[in-house]
Specification:
seven-stranded mixed beta sheet; alpha/beta; 258 residues; binds zinc ion
Length: 258
């Protein structure tokens, strides 16, 4: 059985936990260390239960406490060369933490989990996202991507569950208070997906096995849960209530596959 839950999702920090057999991996570690430990307890886990941390890219809302958590709890960190070098340049790398470099073209075993990284266009040095499997069921995680690609759509087809970025509503972003340069960065080809882009991406996938779809990384200023839900429900041809939401404070509770 593969099960997964979120500790929180959004620009103030992202952290997801996936579990198969005896392995529990964090996917991103962008909350504060103490919040991460407390929110794991909310899911019935202790920090010592975590066996690996997979980091998608160096942005603070994804890698913020990755090295601190890894050092405090003797956990291995999995990340690309580019992400590691960016974190080194920022002085965030701690000596003594075991790091394992990810090849973005190769599936790698992480204990009882199979981890398939895939590249995405985003304004980080070597960003990846992940498909996680227990060998039977597959969970895809996709946040922090400026525009969909054929590679992404091929990789995310035929999944059992998908956590999908719905970062902003275009009207709210452009009509909102953010400075122009930031609006352009968010909406640009290396920024984030808006609700409509996520809807289109979802429509392009083979969704025949999809049992869980969760809207994630919603902007608190530039999006609303009902708009994100409505967009993904249109793509799925389902009731809006069937679409789950990963929130900044609560994330979402355990979902099981298999
Ligand atoms: Zn992010
Ligand atoms: Zn990012």
């Amino acid at each position: 059985m593969l099960r997964f839950a979120s500790l929180g999702s959004g620009s103030k920090g992202n952290c997801l936990v996936a579990e198969a057999g005896a392995t529990r991996a964090l996917i991103d570690c962008g909350l504060k260390l103490r919040d991460t430990e407390q929110r794991l307890a909310r899911l019935g886990l202790a920090a010592g239960d975590i066996s690996a941390i997979l980091v998608t890219h160096e942005h603070g809302d994804h890698a913020g406490c990755a090295f601190d958590f890894a050092a405090a709890h003797s956990v291995s960190l999995y990340l690309t060369y580019g992400t590691l070098s960016a974190l080194k340049d920022e002085g965030k790398v701690l000596e003594g933490v075991k790091t394992v470099l990810i090849d973005s073209k190769k599936t790698l075993p992480v204990g009882d989990l199979e981890v398939q990284p895939f590249t995405v266009p985003h304004d980080a040095r070597e960003p990846v996202q992940f498909v996680i499997s227990d060998g039977v069921s597959k969970l895809g995680v996709l946040t922090d991507i400026g525009a969909s690609t054929a590679h992404v759509e091929e990789t995310l087809s035929g999944l059992d569950a998908l956590v999908l970025e719905c970062n902003y509503d275009a009207d709210m972003l452009w009509g909102g208070a953010y400075p122009q340069w930031l609006k352009q960065r968010i909406a640009g080809p290396f920024g984030h997906l808006d609700n409509l882009q996520s809807e289109r991406l979802l429509r392009a996938l083979d969704r025949s096995r999809l049992k869980h779809i969760i809207a994630a990384h919603l902007s608190q200023q530039n999006n609303r849960p009902d708009l994100a839900r409505a967009a993904l429900a249109r793509a799925m041809g389902c009731e809006e209530s069937w679409i789950s939401l990963a929130t900044q404070e609560e994330g979402f509770g355990w979902r099981e596959l298999g």
